[in-house]
# Entry
Amino acid sequence: MITLVQKTSQVLLHMSVAFAVTYGFTGSLAVGGVAAIVEPVCNVLLLPLHDRVWQRIRERLALQPRNVAKGSATGHAGAPAPAVVHG
# Structure
């Protein structure tokens, strides 16, 4: 039950912020009302896509080998250490 109340509160917060910002810029109650509806709907539709993209990024990073060992002279995987010039 608390999760439902929390999610409802979050939706109302999103809608209030969208309305307030849009009304502040336009001075129009109608445009503010439309933004209060459209913005949360767009978030609901795009959030799963966003989460899938980040899941794929995490999976790719987990599959990459970690070539840089502590104390390695190369500093970067396969790259030679920078030369030290004494002048």
Notes: The radius of gyration is 25 Å. The CA atoms of residues 15 and 36 lie 4 Å apart. DSSP finds two helices and no strands in the chain. The mean pLDDT is 83.
